[in-house]
Amino acid sequence: MNVHEQFAEDLALCALGESPGDEGIALEEHLEECASCRRELEILRGDAALLALSVAGPKPPARARRRLIDAIAREPRRKQAPRVARWLVLLPWFAAFMLALAAFFVWNQKSHLQARIAEMQKESASQEVELQRAREVVSTLTAADALRVTLVAAKTPPQPQGKAFYVRDRSSLIFLASNLPSLPPQKAYELWLIPTQGAPVPAGVFKPDARGNATVMNPPLPSQMEAKAFAITVEPEAGSSAPTMPIVMIGAGE
């Protein structure tokens, strides 16, 4: 910017009789040193005087009017400070409110998570106790040195039992019996395979020993017969082709 242009506004104000404000001191110092600006000020004052006379007197020269208008046009326009919208004033308060709301939400979520974690830890501890009890039960049931005792009603003889192990593909049968009652003379127990279809098939004749135990191992059977149950009846020592009622013991496959 040229130093003369810097004082153009102040020169125009002085010519119109207005005080240039705080810049007046700088203008006076500049006028003392700059003959060009002094001449410009005198010309502007003359033009202003002619313009004032034009209100009640004759029309001033067009040159004087144009010079004054040009001087005013050269005056830099002051920028108007932008108006701040009302919502911009409230923006910091709104931001503070949202921050407080977010902080409360985080705190609430943290409290909820802490409570949930404590609950899960409690459940985990309870499950660990139950798991330890289950381990102790399994350990007792499978211990090699465990004493296994079967309890029966007092003064009641042990109940007869029988277990059959049958493999259909090989027609293989193993039968184990215990606590069987003694038999009348010329009588025997006979094992029967009861198929899924058809009549019962003889599966061996046997007599228990003095303690009521007996065994039948791989009697002759039809090839690959599907069995649904096994039964025991009391028959003649030579056996029978069909069961004689009543049935003493019976059991279905598992």
Structure characterization notes:
With 254 residues, the protein is α+β, with helices and mostly antiparallel strands. Among the domains are: 3-74, no CATH class; 161-252, Immunoglobulin-like. Helices cover 45% and strands 19% of the residues. It has six helices and seven strands. The chain has a four-stranded antiparallel beta sheet, with no helix packed on it. A three-stranded antiparallel beta sheet has the order 1-2-5, with no helix packed on it. The radius of gyration is 62 Å and the shape is rod-shaped. The model has no long low-confidence stretch (mean pLDDT 79).
Oligomer: single chain
Main sheet specs:
4 strands, antiparallel
Our Rg estimate from Cα atoms comes to 62 Å
- State the helical fraction: 40-55%
Sheet with most strands: strand arrangement? 4-3-6-7
CATH architecture of the domain at 161-252: Sandwich
Summarize the helix and strand pattern as letters. Answer: HHHHHHEEEEEEE
Alpha plus pi helix count? 6
The overall pLDDT average reads 79
Separation of the first and last Cα atoms: 110 Å
Proportion of residues in β-strands: 15-25%
Shape: rod-shaped
What class do helices, strands and sheet pairing give? alpha+beta
Enumerate the spans where pLDDT stays under 50 for 5 or more consecutive residues: none
CATH class of the domain at 161-252: Mainly Beta
CATH topology of the domain at 161-252: Immunoglobulin-like
**Beta-strand segment tally:** 7
Short note summarizing the structure:
This protein has helices at 3-6, 8-15, 24-33, 35-56, 62-74, 86-142, and strands at 161-167, 172-178, 187-195, 201-206, 214-217, 227-236, 247-252. The protein is α+β, with helices and mostly antiparallel strands and 254 residues long. β3 and β4 form a beta hairpin.
